[in-house]
Amino acid sequence: MDEALDWLSQQPDMSEPRRLVGTYRAERTPPGGGSSFAVTITVWDAGPGAGIYRYSVEARADGGRVATGNPERTIEAALSLVHWQDLDGDHDGC
Question: Domain residue spans in the chain?
C-alpha cells in the first residue's frame, strides 16, 4: 500500500481510501443501436489490503448517466462487471 493510502486508512474520520489509477475516455454505442456517446471511465485502487475489493470503476456518460459495478481483485474483472447498459438511453440529459 502506498504511504497516503496507509495513512488515510489509519485515520478514524476516514474510510475506504482509494488511489486514482486513471481516467479514460471512450465512445459507447448501445448494443441495440443508436448514436454513440462519450463516456469517462475512472478506475480506483483501494490497495492490496482490500483483497477481492481492490479495484472499482465508475463510468459517466456526458448526459449525466452513471454506471458502476462490484469491486474486484483485478482491473479487468472490475471493468467487466460495470453495468454498462445503465449508460444507454437519452443522452441529452438524464
Answer: 19-87
